[in-house]
Amino acid sequence: MAILIVLALVVIFAIVLLAKTVKIIPQARAGIVERFGKYHGTLTPGLNVIVPFMDKVRYMIDMREQVVTFPPQPVITEDNLTVSIDTVIYFQVNDPIAATYEIANYIQAVEQLTMTTLRNIAGGMDLEQTLTSRERINTGLSTVLDEATGRWGIKVKRVEVKSIDPPVSIKDAMEKQMRADRDKRASILTAEGQRQSAILTAEGNKQSAILNAEGAREAQILRAQADRESSILRAQGEGQAIQTVFQAIHDGSPDQSLLAYQYLQMLPKIAEGDANKLWIVPSEIGKALEGLGSTLSDMKGIPANSGGPAKRVDLGPTEPALSSPDRARSEADAAVQAAIAEANASANGIREQVQQVEPPVDPSADA
Q: Domain 65-166 carries which CATH code?
């Protein structure tokens, strides 16, 4: 029985001895070995053997890059405003021996160093610069921490400012200021839009007025040209008509007989009309007709008898040339003689009708 107890004790001692001798270090970690309280060596990842009861793995250092976030720290800016800044630090242990023996707690040391450096940097800037200078704060923190933690065996990879929170009253004032700035920019943009709209509208009205004026001017010019052409054509037509009539008169060699015939032709037109119910023919109509020719013959330019062929008036290229002037003159004379004979016949007929209608005049009554 005693032998079994001894064997059991030996087995337990062997197991403990083996556990004290063999050390397994995980990947990306380093073990700091002390012998009798003094640094003896550094264990690398894998299976390691140490002297039991003499060597001891005092610290296990994580060699991976670590991310440490610190609670928001109150910082006073240059314009005496307190802001809360939250930071994040990325660092890595390069020298496990220095990280173990040069600093007692490198995490706490980095936090305090970050706090003091952040207050130093933000103390030299006002609130607006602090809120808009994140990159400047990050760069300043990285430089100071890298210089300070180099002797601790720590490499600061990156420093980031998570948030910068000003006081609530400052937030309200900033929001009001930003709202006022946005309202100002909106008003400016609205005014510029209205100005551009008014300018474009005025330019459009100007162009429309110019085009309307040009159109009215062109229309007036065209109407004036049309009126001028119409007046010219009308005047030319009237001139040609007058020339034609004048030519016909000259061709006919008019005398007092033709004028008497024209007068007789106007007599029936006097009786025309619905209002002419009664037409009184004077008894002296015959004598009036006989003296009409002699009276009109005294007019300037109208002879009592035509003295031979009349001189032809040239009407220009619009009038066809006469192939036989003598024949045309003879035809005109025949037409005039026929008109005179018709006028005499009409005058005789009218004289007879008057004599039949009018009672005989008693000469003794006049006496």
A: 3.30.479.30
